[in-house]
Specification:
single chain, 211 residues, TIM Barrel, alpha/beta, binds ligand LARABZUK, 10 strands, 22% strand
Length: 211
């Protein structure tokens, strides 16, 4: 598996700068008020906007279109990740202003065909773990064997409970549409506070095996 890396739930400028240094491809900012990683008020928007060399992803849950547009402008977001129950029509509207990653929470079983309406209105899917009422950042992993029956060429990010110990097993995945690995709470010392040494080691491990 050769894939890009996204580190989600960034709330500190120093962490964002370090991700650039490590060659991480995507940094995620959570714009969902109920998340302990809610970025607003923690990360200076203007300073974040200045940062280059990494794609900044805004993560939203059923947000107003204008809220998303304002965040794109204020933080210089490159992509928008929709982590709630957003419809294909909503995704299409967002996609007029930024590329869209549509997240789906995967449970014990999956009906891939149900995702088909989102293919023409998104750039990527992201598969996270269904865990009660939580939308994301749960640290729980779903059964990756389910991905073996993914029937589309539409590219996807793999997410949900990925930790430092998974670098080796990620290497074993032979999934043509898998383009990126998304990590979050398993690399934290507290919500929104990343253990950057652990992140760096993980990036080095994945890169050394894949590039
Ligand atoms: O991280 C959150 O708090 C969060 C809250 C609401 C919606 C999405 C959220 N995170 C989105 C992500 O992309 C996470 O990286 C993904 O859920 C995986 O998290 P984890 O299982 O902790 O690795």
């Amino acid at each position: 598996m050769e894939s890009f890396i996204k580190v989600c739930g960034i709330t500190q400028l120093a962490d964002l700068q370090a991700l650039v240094q490590y060659g991480v491809d995507y940094a995620g900012f959570i714009f969902y008020e109920k998340s302990p990683r809610f970025v607003t008020g923690k990360l200076d928007a203007a300073a974040a906007k200045e940062i280059t060399g990494i794609k900044k992803v805004g993560v939203f849950v059923d947000a107003d279109l204008q809220v998303v547009k304002d965040a794109i402008h204020n933080y210089g977001l490159s992509l928008v990740q929709l982590h709630g129950n957003e419809t294909p029509a909503y995704c299409a509207a967002i996609r007029e202003v930024a590329p869209v990653i549509k997240a789906f929470r995967i449970g014990a079983q999956v009906n891939w065909q149900q995702l088909e309406p989102w293919i023409p209105v998104t750039d990527y899917f992201l598969f996270d773990t269904a865990a009660g009422k939580a939308y994301g950042g749960t640290g729980q992993q779903f059964n990756w064997d389910l991905l073996g029956s993914y029937p589309f060429a539409h590219p996807f990010f793999l997410s949900g409970g990925i930790g430092p110990e998974h670098a080796a097993s990620l290497q074993q995945l032979q999934l043509p549409a898998l383009v990126a690995v998304d990590v979050n709470s398993c690399f934290e010392t507290a919500p929104g506070i990343k253990d950057m040494q652990q992140v760096q080691a993980f990036v080095q491990q994945l890169r050394s095996q894949t590039k």
